[in-house]
Amino acid sequence: MKIKLFFLSFSICFLISKAQNIPMYVGTYTDGFSEGIYKFDFNLKTGGLSNLQLAIATENPSFIAYAPNKKYLYAVSESLGGTVSSFKIQENGLLKFLNKVSSNGTGPCHISLNKQGNKAVVSNYRGGSAAVYNISRDGKLNDASQVFEYNTTDKVSHAHSAQFFKDELYIADLGMNTVYHYKLKNNNYELTTTSIFKTTENPGPRHFALTRNGQFIYIINELSGSITSVKKTDSGFEQIDFDSTLEDTYEGKNACADIHLSKNELYLYGSNRGENSIAVFKRNKFDGTIEKIQTMPVHGDWPRNFTLDPSGKFLLVANQKSQNITIFSIDASTGTLTFLHDVKAPRPVCLLF
């Protein structure tokens, strides 16, 4: 009887432990230290990362994204020519290659999917273009259905990120200092606004975060170390705030990278490469303005990308140059961060839950 109870207790503990762990994929640069996309087990209770595995060998998967059903994973490849690939997620969490298509521009640096999982959009940094793809039911990418070219005779585009929102599409262009706005009409995206904010400066919009209702957009500017806050109105868009991500005393070089809202949308986080920090902002949920409340060192070098875990209790940072991932707990009442620990990872540049 005691033996049966022991095995029953052991089985229950094993199942609880397994249920607490979820996969986290890591996109990397494969320049001698890395081989492709990696997978960790993430513990939702402790914030621990363990069991590092190579999910699939592939060249320079610098940005990765899930299908909404999490049966497929997509990655851009900053290889010569520029490509984007689709993978099937197997039962063991490793990836199986499905197909590869052209990114329609050099230096693809970002990919995202719509909520239906039938469209993807890729941003080509060096090529100055963005491409929209239809996705088949088997997860494979079709050739691009639309390609937007942004270079002009007197300006060089650096399309850096894009996101769908319902029947809309936003594309941030660091080179042109703008965020384009498109609407879906007759299955094609048509440009409705050449810029959702106005500037005569050179902020370099890179990534952005949208509230769930789509009313507010927060754009992190790589070159100026700042966040531009924009409100969507009945007549278009209105800039409502502009805030530095840096400490007043910081005087070195800096390049902002990533930005995310907390799960409850009360806090906003942005990464600084140079100051090597996460800037934490408290967000006014009514008027959308933000106020900086913390600068947290990332305990690493060059935080290119970061993410919040599905529970909203932890924030994880991919430090490209120091080759480590740092884990922070998030205070539920204040949104502030506390450093917990870090793990080594080969050239991490994108984290995906």
UniProtKB/TrEMBL annotation:
InterPro entries linked: Cycloisomerase_2, Haem_d1_sf, Lactonase_7-beta_prop, WD40/YVTN_repeat-like_dom_sf
Coiled-coil intervals, chain numbering: none
GO MF term list: hydrolase activity
Class of enzymatic activity (EC top level): hydrolase
Pfam families attached to this UniProt entry: Lactonase (PF10282)
SUPFAM superfamilies the UniProt entry points to: C-terminal (heme d1) domain of cytochrome cd1-nitrite reductase (SSF51004)
EC number: 3.1.1.-
Keywords: Carbohydrate metabolism, Glucose metabolism, Hydrolase, Signal
Signal peptide start and end residues: 1-19
Family: Belongs to the cycloisomerase 2 family.
Name of protein: Lactonase family protein
